[in-house]
Amino acid sequence: MKGVFTISLDFELHWGGFEKWPLQEYRNYFLNTRAAIPRMLEMFTEFDVHVTWATVGLLFNGNKRELEEIAPLERPTYVNTRLSAYEYIRSAGIGDTESEDPFHYAKSLIVKIAATPNQEIGSHTFAHYYCNEPGQQLEQFRFDLGSAVRAADRMGIKLRSLVFPRNQFNREYLQVCHEAGITSVRSNPSKWYWDIKSTERESRWLRLNRGVDAYLPISRNNAGVDISSLTSGDGLPLCIPASRLLRPYRPGEMFLNKLKIRRVATEMAEAARMGKLYHLWWHPHNFGNHTDQNLRGLREILEAFDLCRSHNNMQSLNMGEVALNRALVNATQKTS
Q1: Is 312 a residue whose pLDDT tops 50?
Q2: CA distance 290 to 328
Q3: Rounded Cα–Cα distance for residues 145 and 92 (Å)
Q4: 248-257 per-position pLDDT tens digit
Q5: What is the pLDDT of residue 127?
Q6: Strand, helix or coil at 97?
Q7: For the chain, what percentages of helix, strand and coil (3-state, to nearest 5) are there?
Q8: pLDDT value of residue 254
Q9: Residue 216: partners with Cβ closer than 8 Å, 6 or more residues away
Q10: Which residue from 126, 68, 64, 130 is spatially nearest to 98, judged by alpha carbons?
């Protein structure tokens, strides 16, 4: 069986952390992010790499009128109201158009991504919805995802893949995802320190272990998952576990930066040899600082994948393609 290399990106701009990132301090960061995205697309095209861009639905809008027309009637009732994108819009305000406010709209970038070969536009929910935070309810998630689907439909895009914001994976919400047409969902690595219950109540110990694991093998079996083990229950999307978060470049830590890239390349090569699926993810805004250095690291990873493709016949599939591939295999097995 061929190994599979999958990349999923959490595309969110300022919606990914409006409650903790003062926009006046992050303007250049997100402008750099926007400038980096076409360069990523060029690199993905150069290496023929298939990528899922899990996109916050608010970014699909070209202006505030479109946003207000498609926003859900039922909205999350988080105990911590600062987590609500709607509370941010009410209290801080956003611009009227993408040209005026490139931090909260990204329709032009979504058009560019969709027009690039083998790039899948997926969902990161409509309003960066947190599925494990106190106060929110399943029906509110259903309304949120409905708005995400309509925003994409308006651009001629069918959402097939989803990534839960802040990796707050919630198995109870998978049925709603299926009903909305989602066929694949990114799940978390099967490591105790990736069991994320809540952003607000998470311990520093868990975060520390996730950080260290980017450089040192503090747990076993990080070289992907057996593709044959990827199954979906009746009426549920396929859960595709993440393997590794690509952490951003850090100045002054040359050894650690090299160690991080080497770790990804080593794990990917092992997955290729063993016919496993290796799932790498990050946020486009992780390249907002030190963009050139981050892109050089990405190139090293894609060059490593190219070797895996040449030596072990590893293939690149986005999340939607992984789900389709598994569905075809399952159908063949049932008829044989």
Answers
A1: yes
A2: 42
A3: 24
A4: 998 987 778 8
A5: 98
A6: strand
A7: 50, 15, 40
A8: 76
A9: 259
A10: 64
| Residue 312 phi, psi dihedral angles, 5° rounding | -125, 10
**What are the structural domain ranges in the chain?**
4-335
The tens digit of pLDDT for each residue in 252-286 reads 877 788 999 999 999 999 999 999 999 999 999 99
The reported pLDDT for the residue numbered 88 is 98
Judging by DSSP bridges, how do beta strands 51-55 and 4-11 pair with one another? parallel
Amino acid at 333: Q
Residue 118, phi-psi category: left (phi > 0), alpha (psi -120 to 50), beta (remainder): left
| Interatomic CA distance for residues 333 and 318, integer angstroms | 23
User: What is the enclosing helix (H) or strand (E) of 238?
Assistant: strand 238-241
Strand partners, 54: 10, 122
Q: Would you tell me how many other CB atoms lie within 10 Å of the CB of residue 309?
A: 19
Token pair for 20: 């903790």
Per CATH, the number for 4-335 is 3.20.20.370
What mean pLDDT do residues 235-249 have?
Answer: 93
Alpha-helical segments (H) within the chain:
23-46, 64-70, 85-91, 107-114, 138-153, 174-179, 204-213, 254-274, 291-312, 319-335
